[in-house]
Amino acid sequence: MLQVQHLTIDHIRDLRTILKDFSVTLNAGDKAVIIGEEGNGKSTLLKWIFDPALIEDYAEAEGIRVTGAERLAYLPQQLTEKDAGLTVWEFFAEETLFADAPPRRLAKLASSLGLSPGFFYSDQIMGTLSGGEKVKAQLARLLLAEPTALLLDEPSNDIDIETLEYLERVIREFSGIVLFISHDETLIERTANMVIHLEQVHRKQQCRHTVARTGYREYAERRLNAFEKQAQQAQSDLRKKRIRDEKYRRILQSVDRAQVTINHAGRDNPDPMQAARNLKDKMHTVKSMQKRFAREDAQMTEKPVMENPIDFTLGENAEPIPTGKTVLDFELPRLSAPDGSRLLAENIRLLVRGPEKVCIIGRNGCGKTTLLKEIWEQLKNRTDIRAAYMPQNYADLLDLSKTPVDCICTKGDAEERTMVRTFLGALRFTTAEMEHPASALSGGQQAKIFLLRLNLSGANVLLLDEPTRNFSPLSGPVIRRMLAAFPGAILSVSHDRKYIEEVCGTVLELTEGGLVQH
């Protein structure tokens, strides 16, 4: 059993509470997904459950953590700097059970993850592996440790579709506890039997959480239905209140008129005592109504507050691309690894015309990111189109030491900075977050910065490496609709099955022999 009791977490930099009086109990067989918008504290919660010391440099926490006899294993969102400098063999050698693992078990594990049998003994530096290979290596080491509770922060990031399906089986079949964060809606729908939803409402001034023992799709539908029902009831209550208040206003006016009449009549009133008694009765009635209405108002259904996804349109400054225009006519006889150590693919041919939405898929390490960079080199200086590139590693093009505003501004004048702040507000950034270094923000918030840069650049050809990887399952549908409606061409690399299905009209698999229509 894994238990959290009355946990409150305060963010030191923002001086805001990201979790308040949170309690949950997880038992063997629970597959709990933590969801919420970018920057809501999902990773912070997962880190605290594994080791409270991991959040001490940026957050304060108060609560009780009970792990009992559970053996916790934690997959971080990114490799630590120390692990990134190790060879693959050194990375695995740090797990004490690795040396005693039978070769047959290692071979089976490598095969299930799409790795070569000799992968565990490789001299390659961990930091030079592809994004998917890093996740696979970390996942393999966790499983070798034979834990009873898996805490996984974005395990679905960057891994290929075949490995995603393996990960689904791991989560479903794991006999212990699985607590995970993922932006892959398909993975969540197929594995989670419990949802922990973290929200920040009223412009991130108020936090709330929900724990539901149900699947994700059912939770999302119930949540939407409950909000709609509450909104209808709140509107009905408000309508009744207006009618009631109008009647009360008329009664109040009659009391005021009676008061004026008595004052004006004075001694000429044939029965001043009776008039006074009548007025007193009316005033008593008014006071009674006031008290009753106050009780009724306290029982009124509140208008529901939902943490809305981003409010943003991509491509509003982009010039649409004519249907017949050749956007890309690309040929590459040989694609090699960046360090030149091995040949990845041959005879690559790619033709893109008009506002086509193309996705390149393939196994981890096959060279998708390398290919996208080669295409970017060919497109970035074209004058007949305006191309922009969103890399998998945002730090390749973003100076993360700068604030979000400074990352986006090109001129830096007051008018531009005001415009950028307005856009960031539409992307649910608080004023405080606009002043943080981008490095202190979540991956999803950094992705939003990139999307805004792309939009303001006026680009009509986008090269996107895993564009949806850091967006929450709640923001995911909005991002997909935005990209599908983009008036230009998109050439992307992705393993997101919903993105591929809903956005991409052409899907190509990168193989050793080139690109193959999928």
Give an overview in words.
The structure is a single chain. With 518 residues, the protein is α/β, with parallel strands linked by helices. It has 2 domains: 2-224, P-loop containing nucleotide triphosphate hydrolases (Rossmann fold), CATH 3.40.50.300; 326-517, P-loop containing nucleotide triphosphate hydrolases (Rossmann fold), CATH 3.40.50. Helix content is 40%, strand content 22%. The chain is built from 16 helices and 17 strands. The protein has helices spanning 42-50, 81-84, 88-93, 103-112, 131-144, 161-173, 185-191, 216-265, 272-298, 368-379, 404-408, 414-426, 431-435, 443-457, 476-484, 497-503; strands spanning 2-11, 16-26, 31-35, 59-66, 72-75, 149-153, 177-181, 194-201, 206-212, 326-336, 343-353, 357-361, 387-390, 461-465, 489-493, 506-511, 514-517. The strands form 4 sheets. Strands 5-6-7-3-8-9 form a 6-stranded mixed sheet, with helices on both faces. Helix 8 (216-265) packs antiparallel against helix 9 (272-298) and helix 15 packs parallel to helix 16. The longest helix is centred in the middle third of the chain and has 50 residues, at 216-265. The protein is globular and about 110 Å long. The chain starts with a strand and ends with a strand. The mean pLDDT is 88.
Total DSSP helices:
16
Structural class: alpha/beta
CATH superfamily of the largest domain: P-loop containing nucleotide triphosphate hydrolases
Please indicate the count of domains. 2
Rg, Å, rounded: 30 Å
